């Protein structure tokens, strides 16, 4: 169920609907496609109202999780099927199929059938088939979810390339935060039928406006406390364990009261004993991630703090005390 959703998606934009299962992102996609009827407002594509039009009358195509390729048809026949249904003549249809085969780099596999293709190749065929009729908008409902991790990352790069070369608006649904950050021009983060924030990947990751958005996108530390008015227009955040002065440019939109201070694990620094710091904690667990090491720490009051550093294992051991510095410019003050 959707509640007062309002969006403007630009022409030729790669726009992602991101959120947990059941948040309404697929419902919104189906409403755009015409498979769900809206009980208020308008859906417009290219300035034209879509509300009363059935799905087949909207210049939209969809790529689903299941590619639904015709097993008895070759790759080129699958790609050309939609064009044939639209009455495109043979020469024009074959030319467009060749164009799509080149776009998805499957020219050498044109005569194969789906059972002879890998998962990634089948995904490319489904994408080419959807793009062949030149839709104004292409809807993609978690099309990479069935692929293994390595192939999924490869296909993310290919999907972005295809979108840029095709020059078509893509509306992409996923619950994978990394996938959304990698692919998107802009992201809409959804929860319980609402859109909580729309922005570029950088804005969503580095400047989330709500606690849910900050917590859903990547790892983040959240500390409960109170915000007080400080001198010179800045603000003072206090908790039972620390206080930190927040510059006015980061605090001017948050009124005093109970708030959460948020900071990404990579922005916290371990400092030497005696150096200025805001938190004292003890290492509970160490996770080596290849490109980074994640220290899971806990303060004396039981607050869990994560610190991410470079890939080396050199550092404190489990049980060691650590002094942590939280740079004010890397801190966020969140409502909700």
UniProtKB/TrEMBL annotation:
Domain ABC transporter: 1-217
InterPro entries found in the cross-reference section: AAA+_ATPase, ABC_SmlMolc_Importer, ABC_transporter-like_ATP-bd, ABC_transporter-like_CS, Mo/tungstate-bd_C_term_dom, P-loop_NTPase, PotA-like, Transp-assoc_OB_typ2
SUPFAM superfamilies: MOP-like (SSF50331), P-loop containing nucleoside triphosphate hydrolases (SSF52540)
Entry's EC annotation: 7.6.2.11
Keyword Manganese: no
UniProt KW keywords: ATP-binding, Cell membrane, Membrane, Nucleotide-binding, Translocase, Transport
UniProt GO MF annotations: ATP binding
PROSITE patterns: ABC_TRANSPORTER_1 (PS00211), ABC_TRANSPORTER_2 (PS50893)
Catalytic activity: ATP + H2O + polyamine-[polyamine-binding protein]Side 1 = ADP + phosphate + polyamineSide 2 + [polyamine-binding protein]Side 1
Quaternary structure and partners: The complex is composed of two ATP-binding proteins (PotA), two transmembrane proteins (PotB and PotC) and a solute-binding protein (PotD).
Protein family: Belongs to the ABC transporter superfamily. Spermidine/putrescine importer (TC 3.A.1.11.1) family.
Function: Part of the ABC transporter complex PotABCD involved in spermidine/putrescine import. Responsible for energy coupling to the transport system.
Protein name according to UniProt: Spermidine/putrescine import ATP-binding protein PotA
Organism (species): Marinobacterium aestuariivivens
């Amino acid at each position: 169920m959707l509640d007062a959703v309002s969006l403007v998606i630009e022409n030729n934009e790669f726009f992602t609907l991101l959120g947990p299962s059941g948040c309404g992102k697929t419902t919104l996609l189906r409403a755009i496609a015409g498979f769900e009827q809206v009980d208020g407002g308008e859906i417009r594509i290219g300035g034209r109202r879509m509300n009363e039009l059935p799905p087949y009358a909207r210049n939209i195509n969809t790529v689903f999780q299941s590619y639904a390729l015709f097993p008895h048809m070759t790759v080129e026949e699958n790609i050309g099927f939609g064009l044939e249904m639209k009455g495109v003549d043979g020469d024009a249809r074959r030319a467009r199929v060749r164009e799509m085969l080149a776009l998805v780099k499957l020219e050498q596999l044109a005569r194969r059938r789906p059972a002879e293709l890998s998962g990634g190749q089948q995904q490319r065929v489904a994408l080419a088939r959807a793009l062949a009729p030149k839709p104004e908008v292409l809807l993609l409902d978690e099309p990479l979810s069935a692929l293994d991790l390595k192939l999924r990352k490869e296909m993310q790069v290919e999907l972005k390339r295809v979108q840029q070369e095709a020059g078509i608006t893509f509306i992409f649904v996923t619950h994978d935060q990394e996938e959304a950050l990698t692919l998107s021009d802009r992201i809409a983060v959804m929860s319980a039928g609402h859109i909580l924030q729309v922005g570029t990947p950088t804005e969503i990751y580095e400047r989330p406006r709500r606690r849910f958005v900050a917590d859903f996108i990547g790892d983040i530390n959240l500390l409960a406390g109170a915000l007080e008015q400080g001198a010179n227009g800045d603000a003072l955040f206090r908790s039972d364990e620390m206080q930190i002065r927040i510059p006015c440019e980061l605090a001017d939109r948050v009124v005093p009261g109970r708030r959460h201070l948020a900071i990404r694990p990579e922005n916290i620094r371990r400092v030497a004993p005696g150096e200025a710091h805001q938190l004292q904690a003890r290492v509970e667990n160490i996770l080596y991630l290849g490109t980074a090491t994640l220290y899971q720490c806990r303060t004396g009051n039981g607050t869990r703090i994560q610190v991410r550093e470079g890939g080396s294992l050199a550092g404190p051991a489990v049980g060691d005390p650590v002094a942590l510095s939280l740079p004010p410019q890397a801190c966020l003050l969140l409502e909700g």
